[in-house]
Amino acid sequence: MTSSPGSTIGPGSTIGIVGGGQLGRMLAMAAAQLGYKCHIYAPDEAPPAAEVAAFFTRGAYDDEAALARFGGEIDVATYEFENIAAGPLSALAEKAPLYPPRGALEIAQDRLAEKDFVAGLGGRPAPYAAVSSRDELETALTRIGAPAILKTRRFGYDGKGQARIREAAGADAAWDAVKGAPCVLEGFIRFDAEFSILLCRAPSGDIALWNAPENVHANGILDHSKVPASPALRSAIAEAEALACKVADRLDYVGVLTLEFFAGAEGAVFNEMAPRVHNSGHWTIEGALTSQFENHIRAICGLPLGATDLVVPEVTMQNLIGADVVEWQAILGDPAAHLHLYGKGEARRGRKMGHVTRLGGSLG
Length: 364
Ligand code: AMP
Prior knowledge:
The protein is an alpha+beta fold. It has eleven helices and 17 strands.
């Protein structure tokens, strides 16, 4: 399914971004380069994105009236934060075109709906079962077996809202940890590597894919990405790219879409999707001809997409998490390192404070 090309929202227009974190900040910087103004909507007092945007509205994600007012002040809306409830989202979408489309957001907000949807298109998630009571957890564990991971269906990110169950006896502790929230139980995948597929789809149906990054996580949080991924992942990546394009077409998607995968003996196992720009695509700012942020802005404004080719043979992106950020001066000691700091005050444990991208390999 392809949508008819929408009207162009030209430079000078105002792009509304729901969410004020580093993703919104980098989107606003890319939008400014193309001559757009951004208006950030977020509940925080001084969010990182507002520092680089023309306008900022402080409001709660569930305040329908405030989101409707915000929608009336912008030409097009997008989001960098996924956990907005259906009601407030409708209030916004009634006032301004919203991309990526609501259907994509609603599926990606719910781990169960997301797995059902992707499985319906031929993707292979880890074995999974819906769990909404302690009894259902028992039944699911009998079917899936341990080790397994219990994940809340909603509001999880960076390993939050997850409890590992190493053996069946650990079920009580896991159920306590998720505080009775509706969950999915997932079989534990013994993967060789993780990678993500990043694509951008235009309203015309054109799709641009970036080179898939190989991602290494620590404590459930992305630690670093490298591009290109190891050659051993080539066939899993090809399979995952085909699936990601199907997902984007089926959702009549507009903007950047990210799908995360495990690669193992059985090929590409789908983990989760994010209907937005993604941490594993930060390397595209310096490492690709057009960054994920710029192409997202181009897509939602109806502009042609830019090329996504690598500009050098190898790129790495290292996250600066918590206290890592104190190394900023040492990082600048490497003249080839591209340092990005998000302007966040306190370097709390597990908080993404910045990242550093290094371009490498010989240009041949
Ligand atoms: P998630 O927030 O679901 O992406 O999980 C964060 C990280 O935890 C993943 O990137 C993996 O490193 C690990 N993880 C999540 N689910 C599984 C699984 N079913 N099997 C093995 N590792 C997992």
